[in-house]
Structure formats: structure tokens, C-alpha cells
Automatic annotation (TrEMBL):
Phylogenetic classification of the source organism: Bacteria, Bacillati, Actinomycetota, Actinomycetes, Micrococcales
Compartment annotation: Cell membrane
GO terms, molecular function: electron transfer activity
GO biological process: respiratory electron transport chain
Topology term for the membrane: Multi-pass membrane protein
Name by which UniProt lists this protein: DUF4405 domain-containing protein
Keyword list, A-Z: Cell membrane, Membrane, Transmembrane, Transmembrane helix
Residue intervals passing through the bilayer: 12-31, 96-116, 156-181, 201-223, 243-268
Organism: Ornithinimicrobium avium
A Pfam family assignment: Oxidored_molyb
Residue stretches making up the Oxidoreductase molybdopterin-binding domain: 333-476
Domain of life: Bacteria
Length: 502
């Protein structure tokens, strides 16, 4: 047996291969929901540095929603494919959790067993040796087997980079896109160039990781495969077992690829079943790493008025006459008849508040970056009243607050008629200082296409929890009694998670 390839090493290698494929495919599904990349913080039309669509964006705000830009991936490519970004995000979250856990165990055993020396160079001699190896590979030659102990110098540098640089880089840029991180530690997100900088860097890291996987698998079969395959399958040095190892490796790769594809089709076969499995499972990670973070947009000094975006994307279009004649009538009357019902859903009591009455309540103003789960972002100054200052005292048995809109969902995942938009918040979110009903943006009344005259701001969560065109706000006992029982319209219509902190 070869002590450089123990069973734990080979097992973690296979697990990593499975998880990397799940990560890449679910990441492509997320990217396809907004197939554009920016370095700018406001995602203005025509300023993308890279796009995977031929659609041209209109310059005017509010006429083109980000869901209109979504592309449909084949289930052979995306996980799960077919415009299911909610489920794609859940698969990505689960894959990340398992990938990080597998990586921690792998690195821990590397250092615990002393096998780190087989990957991490201990002498600067590795640099000129790697250069010589590179010249040989480029000239389509192969270093002799004596240079592999168990890897040659170039491979050692490559593995060191991927394990100790690229993998942590992907983790760090990935969490920088989480609203919980951004609203708590805005300096960290700004370090990466804002949300769009982190997103673009994460994409570049993905390209490097995908390229490494292709190159790595290719070299296994092209360079001294009679040794490589036996090492990887049996941990042995007997090249007489090469044929057996070749059959096992090829069969395993085929089985893993079929598994990746099967995950997509099994998910699409029953999306509700997949949602019921994925959301509670990934909630473990949110509960441990994110739920304790409280936003502090009103206290932060990282973002100033100079960071305010010139352009703001939107999702959802304002209510129409058919959808909400009350809202249309109030709009046409300069909001004179606009009211928001605030009360207690347990007893059915409520009171109607006008915009003037809402403006008389204690005011809060802060600068925050809005992010959509599809990937776009925009920074604005929001002004309004804290949700807790609007609500009556919490009655006994009330565990959530339900906010309803005058508008409807954009579309339902099962193509049923569009339903009124709503979102439920747990008590921790309700009492966050940055959970507000906003009536001004950048010192002016909130634009109609962005939810005017009043919309929710829930800075610890993605935009699908920020109800626009607010109609009513009330205490409730359990969100399971409303809609499909998932806690919000985007949870019902696009199978998002109730907890939108990442």
C-alpha cells in the first residue's frame, strides 16, 4: 500500500468531486436568473462587464424587471434548471455546507497525519522545478515518474493554490453576498468592491475552479495514468491493477454525472417535496452562522451619500386597475385616500393609518444596499418609521407579523393565477432596528415602481422579503395559515426560504 493515499484521502477526494459538481451546477442556475455581471454598485443598463444574454436593457427604471431577464437552463446543465432560482439557491447552500465540512475534515487530517508535506512546498526550489514542469507540459511532454513524490512541483503549487487560496476565496466572496453579513459588517462587503464586486470575483473564482477540475481530471488520464488510477482507487503501487482501476474510475465518473443530472430531474418532478427537504436542512447553517447577526445600517459609516446608486432595478410591477382599484384611485388622487391597516390578526382589530399619520411617527433614516436573490443590488438612503413603532403592543400568542401588498406576485411557479403579495417576519426580524416602513428614498417620496408610497425595508434579508405597495400590517399567530404556508409570496411562488438572510 502507498502511505501517501490512505482511504480517508481517497474518500474525501471522491466526496469533493461530487460536491464540486453540485456547487457548479447550482451556481450556474443562480447566474442564469440574472445572466449579467457588473463591477459597478448600481447595475446600470449597458455597464455590464460580462453578460450571457443578447437582451438589451432599457435605460428607463421600472419598465423591465429582473425576472424578465431570467434565462432557462437545461436540467442537464443547471441544478435544477428551468428557471428555478429558489431551489437552485437551496441546492447551492446545501452543497456549500457539505463541501466546507468535507474540506475542514480533509485539511484537518492532512495536518494531523503529516501528509500536508505531499501538497504544500517546503522549499523555494519548487518554483524553478515547477517552471521546468510547465515547459514540459506546454511542449506536450511529460515529466518522468521520478518527479512525482507523489506529485511533481507544478502539481504541488496547483494543489496548494486551490486548497489554501482559491477555496477560501470562494467562501469569503460567497458570504459577502449575504444580506445578514452586509447589514452587520458593511465594511467587509465594501472591501470586495460591494455586492457586485463580490459577485464578479466569485464568478471568476468559479471559472478557475471549473478549469482546475477539468484540467485535473484530464491529467489523471493523460499523465502516468497507470500509476494515478491505481493510487486513487486502491491506494496501491501495483500497476498490474491498472485495468481494474481504469474501469472503476470511469464507472464512478459516469455514475457521479448521472447522479448530478438525476438530482435536477428529481427536484423538478416534485418541487414542493424538494423545498420541504432543502429549506429545513440549509436552515441549520443560517441558524448557526447568520441568525444572530443584527443589522446596524443606522449606525454604520462605511456607506455615505456618495455611494448612492444612480440606477435601481426592480422586481414586480405596480398594481393595475384590475388588480387594485383602491391603489390606483389613491395614486390618481396624490395618495389622499391611501391608508395602511395596522392591527392584530388574532382578534381582528385594526386601525387605518394615512401617510400623514405615519410621517408623524418617530423617523429613522439610513443608507443601505438592497440586494435581490437574483444578484442585482442598489444603494440608497431610506427614510421611514420602524415597524415596531407602527404596531400595537404584541398580543399574547402572536409570533409573527404579516405584511400584505396592494400588488400581486409576478408569477407562480406552478402557473396558477397570480396571488396577492405578502411576507411574514419572525419576532427577531420584527424588532430589528433596520426593519422599517419606508416612505422616502434619497430624500424624495419612494418611486412608484419601487413600492411607493410606502414599502418595507428588512435590511437583514434579501429583497423578496421587502413588501412593496403596503396594504396592511398585523400580528398573527402562525404564517402556516396563510398562502401555501411557507411565509411569503416568493416562498410560495418561487420556493424561496422563509429566512432570507443569505
Amino acid at each position: 500500500m502507498n502511505p501517501d493515499f490512505p482511504l480517508w484521502l481517497r474518500a474525501s477526494h471522491l466526496i469533493n468531486f461530487v460536491l464540486i459538481g453540485m456547487l457548479l451546477r447550482s451556481g450556474w442556475e443562480i447566474l442564469s436568473s440574472l445572466p449579467r455581471l457588473w463591477w459597478r454598485k448600481d447595475c446600470a443598463p449597458g455597464t455590464e462587464w460580462l453578460r450571457f444574454t443578447r437582451r438589451q436593457l432599457p435605460k428607463e427604471e421600472g419598465v423591465y424587471t429582473s425576472l424578465m431577464d431570467e434565462k432557462s437552463l437545461s436540467p442537464l446543465i443547471g441544478l435544477p434548471g428551468r428557471e428555478n432560482v429558489g431551489l437552485g439557491r437551496h441546492w447551492h447552500g446545501l452543497s456549500v455546507m457539505l463541501w466546507v465540512l468535507n474540506g475542514i475534515i480533509y485539511v484537518g487530517l492532512l495536518f494531523g497525519t503529516g501528509l500536508w508535506r505531499r501538497i504544500v512546498p517546503t522549499s523555494w526550489d519548487v518554483v524553478p522545478e515547477a517552471w521546468e514542469s510547465l515547459k514540459m507540459y506546454v511542449s506536450f511532454q511529460t515529466p518522468s515518474i521520478e518527479h512525482y513524490q507523489p506529485y511533481d512541483a507544478l502539481q504541488m503549487l496547483g494543489y496548494t493554490f486551490v486548497i489554501f487560496v482559491l477555496a477560501p476565496f470562494m467562501m469569503l466572496t460567497g458570504v459577502a453576498m449575504a444580506p445578514a453579513i452586509r447589514s452587520r459588517y458593511p465594511w467587509y462587503v465594501k472591501f470586495w468592491g460591494g455586492h457586485q464586486g463580490a459577485r464578479s470575483l466569485h464568478f471568476i473564482g468559479m471559472v478557475l475552479m471549473a478549469g482546475f477540475v477539468v484540467m485535473h481530471v484530464g491529467l489523471v488520464f493523460l499523465v502516468h495514468r497507470e500509476y494515478n488510477l491505481v493510487h486513487m482507487v486502491f491506494g496501491d503501487v501495483d500497476t498490474a491493477r491498472y485495468a481494474q482501476a481504469f474501469v472503476i474510475i470511469v464507472s464512478t465518473i459516469v455514475a457521479v454525472v448521472l447522479f448530478w443530472i438525476a438530482l435536477s430531474y428529481l427536484t423538478l418532478a416534485d418541487r414542493v417535496r424538494a423545498h420541504k427537504f432543502l429549506v429545513p436542512t440549509t436552515e441549520i447553517g443560517r441558524r448557526i452562522f447568520l441568525n444572530w447577526m443584527r443589522p446596524r445600517s443606522a449606525e454604520q459609516t462605511t456607506y455615505t451619500d456618495e455611494d448612492i446608486s444612480e440606477f435601481h432595478w426592480t422586481n414586480g410591477l405596480p398594481p393595475t386597475e384590475e388588480e387594485s382599484p383602491e391603489w390606483i384611485a389613491a395614486r390618481d388622487n396624490d395618495w389622499a385616500g391611501y391608508t395602511i391597516a395596522v392591527g392584530d390578526g388574532l382578534t381582528g382589530t385594526s386601525r387605518e393609518l394615512t401617510l400623514d399619520e405615519i410621517r408623524e411617527l418617530p423617523q429613522v433614516s439610513y443608507i443601505a444596499t438592497h440586494t435581490c436573490m437574483q444578484g442585482w443590488s442598489a444603494t440608497s438612503r431610506w427614510t421611514g418609521v420602524r415597524l415596531v413603532d407602527l404596531l400595537p403592543e404584541r398580543p399574547e400568542g402572536a409570533n409573527y407579523v404579516l405584511v400584505e401588498s396592494y400588488g400581486l406576485a409576478q408569477k407562480m411557479y406552478d402557473n396558477r393565477p397570480r396571488e396577492p403579495f405578502y411576507a411574514a417576519y419572525d419576532l427577531e426580524t420584527v424588532y430589528e432596528a433596520d426593519t422599517i416602513l419606508a416612505y422616502e428614498r434619497n430624500g424624495r417620496p419612494v418611486d412608484i415602481h419601487l413600492g411607493g408610497p410606502a414599502r418595507m425595508r428588512v435590511e437583514s434579508n434579501h429583497g423578496y422579503k421587502h413588501v412593496k405597495w403596503v396594504r396592511s400590517i398585523r400580528w398573527i399567530a402562525d404564517y402556516a395559515e396563510y398562502g401555501d404556508g411557507r411565509g411569503g409570496t416568493r416562498e410560495d411562488s418561487a420556493l424561496q426560504a422563509f429566512n432570507g438572510r443569505i
